[in-house]
Write a structure and sequence with these properties.
The structure holds two protein chains of two kinds.
Chain A: H1 14-41, H2 45-48, H3 63-72, H4 74-105, H5 111-123, H6 127-139, H7 146-150, H8 157-166, H9 172-180, H10 185-196, H11 198-213, H12 217-222, H13 231-241, H14 246-278
Chain B: H1 21-25, H2 28-57, H3 76-83, H4 85-117, H5 123-135, H6 138-148, H7 155-167, H8 183-207, H9 212-220, H10 225-253, H11 257-263, H12 281-290, H13 295-321
Helix pairs in contact in B: 4-8, 4-10, 4-12, 5-8, 6-11, 8-10, 8-11, 10-13, 12-13
Chain lengths: 282, 326
């Protein structure tokens, strides 16, 4: 039960074997549902009804996938999700950096109250505000638009909190030196703070992207046109349509999951780091 | 550094007050205006104002379908809520769900995190695999698990019926999502699976901050593994554990999507089945706000959600702050 392991490699003992055994069972539990999902998408509906079920498809068929691709109009959903999530993410990293910097490094009256209001967004459940916001967008005739999906998320209380913490690492001397050199205060933020904060901003960007990509409740109550749907919304709609036709539902799910998994496998280190920094979930 | 020279930094005072580009856009005021005006506007419009108005309107008969302005109805909505059987069911379901998922997830994640943290090789691989479900869309996870839970030929019941044949037993195979007694927990198991890797990663971060010397010293004193866990790991991990518990419970109390996607057919169909066993408090909020368009009453439910989450958080923080007795 030691946090630090000796660098000398000792032969595996019983407890090590046991550890790997436990971890492998855990890994199987994590992975197998995905394997079933992919394989079952290739089965036809009569094979899916069979008792006991087959593991590998006896007759590989692409019907479910082509059907799901056409019906889901996946490129459309994907484009919507990417557009919305990219705008939100760009805005959140910029505004979080800016507000985090100002709240940490610049004195101004009302700083504590502002910070308190901002971090309250992390702890107070959102439902009370949601009804009023829905009504607000409704009265502006902006329901069922991407604007309503983007606007309320341009700032993130969590992002500001995270960046304020990260700003500890910027030495005041660096900022003062730039001031003596005649840099403007806004210029200091753009030319000194942002480049120095890049790793934290990248972690925040990835977290913000993944979190908003999977957002469900707000799009569900705001959007009506399928053309505007995001991936989770389209997938939920699709699986409701084909509730009892699991081959199609699973094929659609596979299509929707693949881009996320690819991005995750490429960026896994930073993603896990981003989630660890955050300690929060949807 | 040899000698210290004390310099007085003279502020640069221009000889005349000139209005230059720099004097307008270069200073602190410009930065503060640039940063704060949009931010204050944003948080007022999209957070403080909606919170305030939402709370006030929980005392009205507000409906977006009505052309009339909301009328103040006093505590009517609250009286209705306290006598509403559905709200009681939904609160009990949400609390059950939160305690079940957070408890089970932590019980699995803590041993996994400890084992992973001590691993010589393969730590990154396992962490990656455990994290895969976290990044999967919750809707996708719901579809997959609906498939695993199929009563006739899902993977769980296939395994169980094989077991039946081997042991020569016969019992009714569970109907995971159709049986009101277990549907909520079936949804909960999916949620445990999906977020397990997240909690493992958080706990690993907490564990790796415990100095290894503590363990070495205790081991020299002849402490057993259980004692190491009980006297070192657990107390030093307490801040992480409290943090994980508070945030997890708060978010699981607000569960919506998992149950929504696994049990109902989505928009238009009835919610919270079978027999209201998966009706959660946020689902009830969704139903009264966006199906029945009773915004006043929905605001009341939202206030109740807020109170429940706040009570749970405060109690846990209070318990977590107390020193544990040994």
């Amino acid at each position: 039960m030691n946090g630090r392991t000796p660098s000398v490699r000792a032969p595996l003992d019983v407890s090590q074997v046991f550890s790997y055994g436990v971890l492998l069972v855990g890994a199987m539990t994590s992975l197998l549902p995905f394997v079933f999902m992919v394989l079952s998408g290739f089965k036809d509906s009569s094979e899916l009804q069979r008792i006991p079920p087959t593991f590998l498809p006896e007759q590989w068929t692409l019907d479910n996938f082509t059907w799901a691709w056409d019906t889901l109009r996946f490129p459309r959903l994907f484009a919507n999700s990417i557009l919305i999530t990219t705008i939100i993410t760009l805005s959140v990293i910029y505004t979080s950096g800016l507000l985090g910097y100002v709240l940490e490094k610049i004195e101004f009256p009302g700083r504590r109250i502002l910070f308190f209001a901002i971090i309250s967004t992390m702890f107070v459940p959102q439902q009370i505000a949601m009804v009023v916001l829905w009504d607000f967008f409704n009265s502006l005739k902006l329901l069922n638009t991407h604007i309503a999906l983007i606007m309320p998320f341009l700032y993130s209380g969590f992002g500001i909190f995270l960046m304020k913490q990260a700003m500890h690492t910027i030495p005041d001397e660096l900022l003062d030196a730039a001031r003596i050199d005649g840099a403007s205060e806004i210029g200091i933020f753009h030319r000194i703070v942002i480049p120095n904060m890049w790793p934290s901003l990248a972690a925040l960007a990835i977290f913000t992207f993944m979190f908003n990509y999977d957002s469900f409740f707000w799009p569900l109550i705001v959007l009506q046109d399928y053309d505007l749907y995001t991936v989770p919304l389209g997938l939920a709609f699709f699986q409701g349509q084909y509730f009892n036709d699991l081959g199609r539902a699973l094929a659609g799910t596979t299509l929707a999951v693949i881009p996320t998994l690819v991005v995750f496998l490429v960026l896994q280190r930073r993603i896990i780091q981003g989630f660890t920094l955050s300690g929060m979930k949807g | 550094m040899g000698e210290v020279t004390v310099r007085a930094v003279q502020p640069l005072i221009p000889p005349r007050r000139q209005i230059t580009w720099f004097s307008v856009f270069g200073g602190r005021r410009a930065l503060l205006a640039y940063a704060l005006i949009p931010a204050v506007l944003f948080f007022t419009v999209f957070w403080i104002y909606p919170l305030g108005v939402g709370f006030m309107r929980s005392f009205t008969n507000w409906s977006p379908m009505s052309v009339r302005a909301p009328e103040f109805v006093g505590l009517d909505n609250y009286e209705r809520a306290f006598s509403d059987r559905m709200i009681g069911i939904a609160i009990v379901n949400s609390v059950k769900f939160a305690i079940f998922t957070v408890g089970l997830r932590l019980a699995i994640a803590l041993p996994l995190a400890i084992v992973l943290n001590n691993l010589r090789r393969g730590r990154d691989f396992f962490r990656l695999v455990y994290f895969l479900p976290v990044v999967t869309s919750v809707i996708a996870a719901g579809v997959i698990w609906r498939f695993l839970y199929l009563p006739r030929n899902g993977i769980f019941n296939t395994g169980l019926s094989a077991l039946q044949q081997i042991l020569g037993l016969s019992f009714d195979l569970p109907r995971y999502l159709q049986d009101p007694n277990i549907a909520l927990f079936s949804v909960g198991v999916m949620s445990v699976w999906r977020w397990l890797g997240f909690v493992v990663v958080l706990l690993m971060a907490g564990l790796s901050s415990i100095p290894g010397e503590f363990y070495e010293a205790a081991r020299i004193d002849g402490a057993s593994r259980f004692q190491l866990f009980r006297r070192i790991t657990l107390p030093l991990l307490r801040p992480t554990l409290v943090f994980v518990l508070v945030t997890e419970i708060a978010s699981e109390l607000q569960v919506f999507t998992e149950a929504f996607v696994m049990v109902s057919r989505g928009s238009g169909s009835s919610l919270g089945g079978p027999a209201n066993s998966t009706l959660t408090i946020v689902m009830l909020f969704y139903q009264s706000a966006f199906r029945n368009f009773e915004f006043g009453y929905a605001s009341t439910i939202a206030v109740i959600i807020f109170v429940i989450v706040a009570v749970f958080s405060v109690v846990q923080l209070w318990l977590g702050r107390r020193r544990w007795e040994y």
